[in-house]
């Protein structure tokens, strides 16, 4: 498949429900600041296609990631959420970069990197249903996308707390995806003082946005592509 056909197939498979059951059980992650405490609910693993016993963690471009999030009525994380997920993960993978080059965007590289993650999980006895991090860069939302429309924002691949290999970047176009990208969805409701509130509203509200984002309020409608 060429890239466009592959992205279409990814969306169709996920939209049809072809993803591991264990990824459907969300995990709470708490973010706190002087102004507020907010608990978000995230997938324990990156989006994958397949069953609980045979799956491929699937990279995708920003258009596809946004479309999948919209279809499932979820959001993509901010970099600050990615940090919190890593800090609160039960088990952490060691990053395993592959040689750079045109092959980074190939399905073969997707499979090769997935196998490397599986091997690390097996030898370290990671159960499948816990919160894990450290094995991919995250596709994120950021106000930088307003200044740089038509781009994809990536961040993370932590080597340790506050040690991302990939600082926040909007270098690539929104249609770009390579083996290192992971898509972790965040539930559309978050917990504030024992009450569920729409995460979109919290991200736009200055009282809570600084807890969830280092940039302050996120202009959600402006940073996500139309789907």
Structure report:
- The protein has 227 residues and is α+β, with helices and mostly antiparallel strands.
- The protein has one domain.
- Helix content is 32%, strand content 22%.
- The chain has 8 helices and 14 strands.
- The chain has helices spanning 3-15, 62-72, 79-88, 107-123, 144-147, 199-204, 206-212, 220-223; strands at 27-32, 37-42, 48-50, 55-57, 74-75, 91-92, 132-133, 137-139, 154-158, 164-169, 181-182, 186-187, 189-192, 195-198.
- It has a 4-stranded mixed sheet with strand order 10-9-8-11, with helices on one face.
- Strand 9 and strand 10 (164-169) form a beta hairpin.
- Helix 1 (3-15) runs parallel beside helix 2 (62-72).
- It starts with a helix and ends with a helix.
């Amino acid at each position: 498949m060429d890239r466009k056909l592959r992205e279409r197939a990814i969306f169709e498979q996920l939209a049809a429900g072809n993803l591991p059951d264990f990824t459907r059980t969300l995990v709470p992650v708490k973010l706190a600041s002087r102004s507020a405490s907010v608990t978000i609910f995230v997938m324990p693993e990156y989006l994958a296609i397949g069953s609980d016993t045979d799956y491929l963690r699937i990279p995708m471009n920003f258009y596809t990631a946004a479309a999948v999030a919209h279809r499932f009525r979820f959001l993509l994380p901010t970099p600050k959420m990615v940090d919190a997920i890593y800090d609160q993960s039960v088990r952490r993978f060691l990053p395993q970069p592959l040689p750079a080059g045109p092959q980074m965007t190939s399905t073969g590289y997707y499979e090769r990197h997935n196998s490397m993650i599986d091997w690390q999980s097996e030898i370290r006895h990671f159960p499948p249903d816990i919160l894990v991090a450290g094995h991919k860069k995250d596709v994120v939302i950021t106000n930088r996308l307003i200044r740089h429309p038509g781009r994809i924002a990536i961040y993370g691949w932590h080597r340790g707390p506050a040690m991302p290999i990939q600082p926040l970047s909007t270098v690539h176009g929104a249609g770009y995806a390579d083996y290192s990208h992971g898509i972790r969805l965040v539930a559309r409701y978050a917990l504030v003082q024992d009450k569920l509130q729409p995460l979109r509203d919290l991200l736009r509200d200055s009282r809570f946005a600084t807890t969830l984002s280092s940039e302050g309020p996120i202009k959600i409608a402006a940073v996500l592509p139309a789907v």
